[in-house]
């Protein structure tokens, strides 16, 4: 009987240890405000409109911008109890509409699709089975493809991108929800869901 109990306890411990080892992977989906990109677009549009107005003499009405925000998907691999590494891919669509202040002027719509890829690291400050308070940072590239309807203008640009989130909170065990606050191309606030396996 003692052998059965000892064997059962060992089997239970091995199962728990294996279950903990198998949860080194995490996938996540999220949404962020993309403040950095939206503000940058606003300044660039105002600057380019001012130059075009100055050169051509055509005055433009204020641009109307439609941007939903940035959607992301990511992966994390747990190296140890406090450190994770992974990657994020994000997408943002921005639409700006301009119209000249002259009679019968056609509006011009500029559509820009952004795709961003970041290699990310995450460090846990405080970790319990249900809560994880952490910070993260990522470096990568941002690609923007712009086309205008009503004109022949188009451009493709690739540049450096980053995100620093000194404060992040995840709540949950296998399934969880997270919120992050920081600065960079994703914006000031990011929220989403994740799953450990």
TrEMBL record:
Top-level taxon in the UniProt lineage: Bacteria
Domain Outer membrane protein beta-barrel: 6-192
Signal peptide location: 1-19
Family matches, as SUPFAM superfamilies: Porins
InterPro entries assigned: Beta-barrel_OMP
Keywords: Signal
Keyword Signal: yes
Protein name: Outer membrane autotransporter protein
């Amino acid at each position: 009987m003692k052998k059965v109990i000892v064997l059962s306890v060992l089997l239970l411990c091995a199962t728990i240890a294996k279950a903990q080892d198998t949860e080194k992977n995490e996938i996540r989906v999220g949404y962020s405000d993309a403040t950095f990109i939206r503000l940058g677009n606003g300044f660039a549009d105002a600057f380019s409109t001012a130059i075009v107005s100055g050169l051509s003499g055509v005055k433009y009405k204020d641009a109307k911008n439609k941007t939903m925000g940035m959607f992301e998907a990511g992966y994390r691999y747990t190296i140890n109890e406090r450190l994770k590494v992974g990657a994020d891919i994000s997408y943002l669509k921005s639409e700006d509409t301009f119209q000249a202040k002259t009679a019968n002027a056609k509006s011009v719509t500029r559509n820009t699709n952004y795709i961003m890829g970041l290699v990310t690291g995450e460090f846990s400050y405080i970790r319990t089975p249900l809560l994880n308070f952490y910070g993260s940072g990522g470096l990568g590239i941002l690609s923007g493809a712009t086309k205008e309807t009503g004109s022949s203008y188009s451009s493709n640009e690739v540049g450096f991108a980053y995100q620093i989130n000194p404060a992040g909170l995840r709540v949950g065990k296998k399934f969880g929800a997270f919120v992050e606050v920081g600065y960079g191309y994703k914006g000031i606030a990011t929220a989403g869901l994740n799953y450990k396996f």
